[in-house]
Design goal:
This protein has four helices and four strands; from the N terminus they run αββαααββ. The chain is an alpha+beta fold. A four-stranded antiparallel beta sheet has the order 1-2-4-3. Strand 1 (26-33) and strand 2 (36-44) form a beta hairpin.
Length: 96
């Protein structure tokens, strides 16, 4: 979660808005706010798109649960209020 990593993510976030790949993620980097250092808002989810193409969209929410295992395993404190797979407008990743 270094500054270099965040700079690269900002660049990739801008590129994601061009929607070059139909089934890719589209996201924005969010500056820090109350209770978090920075965040990512996914407005289109490649995982949801994948499961939807397979006719199994309801399984995508189970893939999202893995974030709560993965991020602590790499020492990152993740807070999220919802995901696209759960029917929310966006996936809001917030890092403390």
């Amino acid at each position: 979660m270094s500054e270099l990593f965040k700079r690269q993510l900002r660049k990739q976030a801008r590129a994601s808005r061009s929607s070059i790949y139909e089934y890719d993620f589209v996201y924005d980097i969010v500056p820090g706010g109350e209770g978090y250092k920075w965040g990512i808002d996914y407005v289109e989810c490649g995982i949801v798109k994948f499961f939807k193409r397979q006719g199994e969209e309801e399984l995508a929410k189970y893939a999202c649960i893995l974030d709560y295992l993965m991020f602590p395993a790499i020492g990152v404190d993740l807070v999220r209020t919802g995901t696209i797979a759960e029917g929310c407008r966006r996936c809001d990743f917030r890092f403390r």
